[in-house]
Amino acid sequence: MIKDLVVNLTVGTDRDPAAQFAISIAARFQAHIAGIAFAYDPVITPTVMDGLSASWVEAQRTENRAAAQDAVDRFEAAAKREGLSAEHRIIEANLGRAATVFGRIARCFDLAMVGQTDPERALPDDLLIEAALFESGRPVVVVPYIQQAGLKLGHILVCWDGSRNAARAIADSLPFLAQGKKAEIVMVASGGRETDELPGADLGEHLARHGLNVEVKRLVAAGVDVSNVILSYAADCGADFIVMGGYGHSRLREFVLGGATRGMLQSMTVPVLMAH
């Protein structure tokens, strides 16, 4: 059961799809919600450092604090309209530290929420997604920057490849699956042919013991990367929520995302629950 969740609030804009979607989840589960707004330190490159005054730097910090406060005010107003238990934090940090801090904060919540990176905005959402996924130990819901509707669970796609990460994501998604109208286990076979190597039937039996009625669907990649196959099928069948394992590893304290995870984060069209 989801009792509390945390969301990274988008600063510097009136539109925050991740916060609105997080509020819809909190309302569905009557969960406590926390909003985190980062007031980022000014980004100063070495080539212009000597030409900047201390007053300019402080003015930028003041502007960023005001943007964070605006994001918090919108979040609190939206949570109040839904009658939710809510809290917020404004944290001053540089871009790199913000990701680490958010990952650590998320450890004390059932679910973390982050918006997909908007290509028209220079915000470090990818860093926050990676930190939440790989450092929090919690499931993460990534919300498309084009998202407008709140939580819908009419058709859920459960991506299954028999891996540990996929198993973790499915276990973490059970509160959503329990409230969904239809769930489909989707397996992607590479090499241009269907295969029976992935134990979709076993997973179906496992979910049936939780009172869920699921269907199993095998898709063939046939030269197309896995994320595009999944997203194409999601569009064809009208799916409104995707569950999948998040893949990658750390190299010299830098995250290296797996191909399917990276492709999904770049091209996602519906909210995706990931776990690592």
Task: Please give a quick description of this structure.
This protein has 276 residues and is α/β, with parallel strands linked by helices.
Topology:
Elements: E1 4-8, H1 17-29, E2 32-40, H2 46-49, H3 54-81, E3 86-93, H4 95-106, E4 111-115, H5 125-135, E5 140-143, E6 156-159, H6 164-172, H7 174-179, E7 183-189, H8 200-208, E8 214-220, H9 226-237, E9 241-245, E10 248-251, E11 254-257, H10 259-267, E12 272-275
Parallel strand pairs: 1-2, 1-4, 2-3, 4-5, 6-7, 6-9, 7-8, 9-12
Antiparallel strand pairs: 5-12, 10-11
Helix pairs in contact: 4-5, 9-10
Superfamily (CATH H level) name of the largest domain: HUPs
CATH architecture of the largest domain, by name, is 3-Layer(aba) Sandwich
CATH fold category name of the largest domain: Rossmann fold
Whole-number count of domains: 2
- How many helices in DSSP terms? 10
How many beta strands in the DSSP annotation? 12
Average pLDDT rating: 88
How many angstroms separate the termini? 19 Å
Largest sheet: 10 strands, mixed
Shape: globular
The low-confidence runs, each spanning 5 or more residues with pLDDT under 50, are 192-196
SSE class: alpha/beta
Which strands sit side by side, in order, in the main sheet?
3-2-1-4-5-12-9-6-7-8
Query: What is the name of the CATH class of the largest domain?
Result: Alpha Beta
What letter string, H or E per element, gives the SSE order? EHEHHEHEHEEHHEHEHEEEHE
